[in-house]
Amino acid sequence: MTKDGDRPALRRTLGDITASLGDRNTHKTLTEAFTVLGMPPTDEGSKRERVERSFAAVPDNELLQLAERFLQTQNVDASTRNQLQDALWAEAAPPEIPMRTRREVARAIDSTVLVQHPARFMKMLDRLWIINDDPFSELLSPGQGRSLRSRIERHYICNPDWSTEELFEALGAFEASDARFARFVEAAVAGDVLLDESTQRLLAEMINEHLRTTAIELRETGTDGGYPRLTLVPSQLAHTRSPKNVIFASSTKPDIRFRSAMDNDIEIVGGDALVYDRTVTDDGIRWRDLQSWWQETQQIPDDTEGKNTLYARLRSSLPDNSPGQRNLFAGYHRVLGATVYDMPALLPEVWLHWDPKTVRQRGPQALLRFRMDFLLLLPHVPRIVLEVDGSQHYTRDHGRTPDTAKYADMVAGDRDLKLSGYEVYRFGHDELRDETSAHTLLSRFLPELFQRYGVSI
Q: For the CA atoms of the chain, what is the radius of gyration?
């Protein structure tokens, strides 16, 4: 979500764009446009006055949704499209890509590698840049006009006397927003543009050689149409593997056996833990994924029943002596509301380590810090741990005496988690002492968390 300081700029941009609704509609179709866009209805005044009053009534927290609906439902020119896209993409906190790095990337790319299929390449450029900037000259002299499209076709494709750096300059790629440049890089190596996996990997390596200096890189995060999907991610996350089994929703140690050790196929034979054993895609685990898995395994055909029973099952796994955990779980769903369906699922009581022996039996080699309060598996690998700390985490004698050894163990565990690719966020139990406190805290925390990791609400 947009930070408060960015709201005036977004409102100005959207105000200028929505003003065109009055010019493109009759009074009747304007009413229909308000409904499609989710803008408050207004009936009195001129079309211009109706648009102004309706837009003024749109609350700040709905501006992003309005921008998305405008892109989806209105026929806009490339300039307007780019304005709206830049406003939306900025919400994902894109990685900073300095101009020097962008030039180094451009200088490293061979045009013969970048342009495998000219028509597909031009279609990709058309999705991201304004290349039809002089349509009248094209009507007079097809293929010989002054538009950027014609100049690219002449100088970069048909008679290549432009370097890739000159192409980037003409597109405006060096001055573009970080989000647009990042999407350009991802689109350039996409399978539907290159149609060859080896070329995808070759081009990605050309680009990564220079992007890695800014701590980001193109990395395979899934497949798209049978081709690798290459996405820009922080390079420090590159070692993190996709989860194989997620064991959760159990506060007691599960009894596990391997049904097939070769296939990593496990079975819970004791305890009430749940095991999410589907492939975790580049989207992480969203509530929609979890609910689909739940309904299939529990043979529940009705979506509403599936949603309600899954929520109840997860909530039942939370410890009775930790109201803070229960308030965090309830507050997460209350803050996100209906959008939670497409958001990361909040997985409670997740098992990080499992050993058939007890800590006492295993001795010095025992795996400690074996369970997490909550885990979020976000798109493009990030694993977010949420912990609720009561006084038992840093005291003994029922909270009467500070225990520095307990505290040292806790911070050592956090370090180990970070080195394993997890990000840990801790809450004091008093912050979540009741539902009102939890809602206030999470209303502020969740948008900032998701913005940091590029998850759009």
A: 26
